Amino acid sequence: MTHPVISVEDLCVRFGSHDAVKGLSFAIAPRETLALVGESGSGKSATALSILRLIEREGGRIASGRILLRDGDAEIDLTALSDADLTTVRGNHISMVFQEPMTSLNPVLTIGDQVGEVFIRHRGMGARQALAAARDALDQVRIPEPARRLAQYPHELSGGLRQRVMIAMALACRPRLLIADEPSTALDVTTQAEILDLIRSLQEEIGMAILFITHDMGVVAEIADRVAVLRNGVKVEEAPVHALFAAPKAAYSRQLMAATPKLGSGTCAKPAGSGCVLEVKDLSTRFPLRSGLLKRVQAEIHAVSNVSFSLAEGETLGLVGESGCGKSTLARSVLRLIEPAAGTVRLAGQTLTGLSADRLRPARRHAQMIFQDPFASLNPRLPVHELVTEPARIHGLVTARDQRDLAVSLIEKVGLEADAIHRYPHQFSGGQRQRLCIARALSVKPKLIVADEAVSALDVSIARQVTDLMLDLQEQEGLAFLFISHDMAVVERLSHRIAVMYGGRIVEMGPSAEILANPRHSYTKRLLAAVPTPDPERRRQDRSPVALSAPVIVRPRGETVPELPLQEIVPGHFVRTEAA
Prior knowledge:
- It is found in: Cell inner membrane.
- By secondary structure, this protein is an alpha/beta fold.
- Helix content is 34%, strand content 27%.
């Protein structure tokens, strides 16, 4: 009989008087993956932190229950261990990979120092031996040029590579249990596919058990053996992954399934209008690379190269591509938050490129931006009635007397209660904060909203509510959206057209249904092949590696290369010619 690596028995976790986890029990066998799913506040992360006994550092405590770790023929109750004994367990027996590697890695230490520290602390190695072991650990997680990466800092790596570094650190001591807390949520689909394949292959090699925490049901279908569904700290259902997806028994499980966007379900966007809101022509953005004693510009990163597109009234253009392909740089260049090097941008009939700062400010009221992290976008010191009306005040569109009435109408428009105007951002959930950001954007009655990964960090049901809101507002207000996302199913649902970016260029663009059903560019095909399907019967079998990230184009200063043209292969469907 195979004994479980970890057994959680009747676990209760409490923050003050609030019970975050209530009577939770589960077990995970060697080489088995248990997915823990549920919305924010369901108790997923509290459970993970309790297993590692880090919950006390977050202000919580284990009120009751046992967490049993199998060590040979014995069982260790982690809830009864001292801090000194827990130091031995962490890393050696149990490791954890967190959602955002940039906040988990020390920005002032090199990758070699950080990975090497694991071997020094847990294996007792010397500095030189630890550095060699760190290089091997980076090689194990398929990081290219591992020796060179040892001297780099976290900010010099892409999101996918940073997450691989975190996995290398977590697996350095070959733990028997890996806790992966949303390790692929913020990654683009090809990088996510690489990370999931990497975790599975290393699991087979090491024989470890995995507790995989996620709200992405496509990822659950791709990686899990069993699934436990949590709601408000209570396990409402646990079943093998095939059984859960085929016939979920709990109403909440069915609700999660229904909220999960599925690629191929078609678009919900209403027909677009005819008036042109945004016209971008031959836009290029470059960043200087300085070197030498005098730090002169020797070369340039071509982040965006000769991009052209247009957006009609009431239309959504979905912008997709891997991390580093230039999506966010393009969006910021369109609004001149980053100064483009060449090209023109026309917004609501006015040319933005070339305008002075004084003349640009009033023109910007026609375009607003919604960012990925709503909490970082909102001033924590301002109440809601000031937050959501601030753009209107800046542009002189509302008087102090009418400010409160405008705030009420805005938050009601985005589905919040009128009495919420007196609250502060920290008193709202993530989904509610994103609604506040949308209300704030609407205060100046814009013609264009740029949404940069606006729902990627939200649970599936909350993301569904926010995208439904965006569709409703588009129909009511005639808004145009430039929607940037790595979730292809969400892009399909919202977008009339899709533009695929790679290496700073648009390589394919056309109607959503046409692009998804009949992709022509090799990169578009690879991007779609990497999308996880929320159906365990259709798990990807091909584990061949895909590109870690879109290429970074660096050229000597002032050098340009003739562009391969976009060709219209069918009406409205454009594909860039691929080099032989």
